[in-house]
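Quick start: read one record
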Amino acid sequence: MNANLPIGRRVEIFFDDGGDLNRYYNEVLINQEYRDVPPGNFETVVDLGANLGMFSMWIYERTQRIYAIEASEANYRNLAQTVRVNDLNKIQPFHLAIAGKAGTRTLVSDGDCGGYTIYMPPKPGASAQTVQAMTLNEFLDLNRIQRVDILKIDVEGAENEIFTADDFPKAIPKLPYIIGEFHCNYIGEVIPSESYLFAQMPSLRALRAHGYEVTIPSFFANRQQSFIARRPS
């Protein structure tokens, strides 16, 4: 697929047959899913759950470097090819899962290229693969990252173990701003109140306990699945 992206030129995006590329293009680029990212330019961005790289390409012109982490082998392969073919040199792709602890994890899929998760048990007929995992703090240390101006996260439920990992507090000083999705499929589609939501979601409770100001943007009220976490300066 050739697409117009906010990097001043058309980009050839690679994806497997059957992948719903239009969905991710529309979510990020047309509907401006990440419109609440602060204005201005950034030095370092981490795109956690990079999928095919839409967020990385959306923010490309506003940052010096992007660490794009994707657990799915197919998505990583397509992302790496998109980066290579289009000379998107600011993006560094990683085939890796970020989790609550290091080790080998089982990644399952519901058949959609955005539905890979290490957090949920596999559904009947779902495909599975193994992937190496580490904590977010381990990733930052390994790559000598001292500050992440924007952490974007969309990891299909794994945010619950990422933000409750034993060593997550060590990463907090490096993470002033987090934006992404929480996943509450297992508590039902209808969430009666924000207090009920926080009572059910370990990820949101953990961020608040660590001193973040956590908000649910009104733009996402129809889905109730997006959050912003800011660390007071």
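Confidence is low (pLDDT under 50) at residues 219-224.
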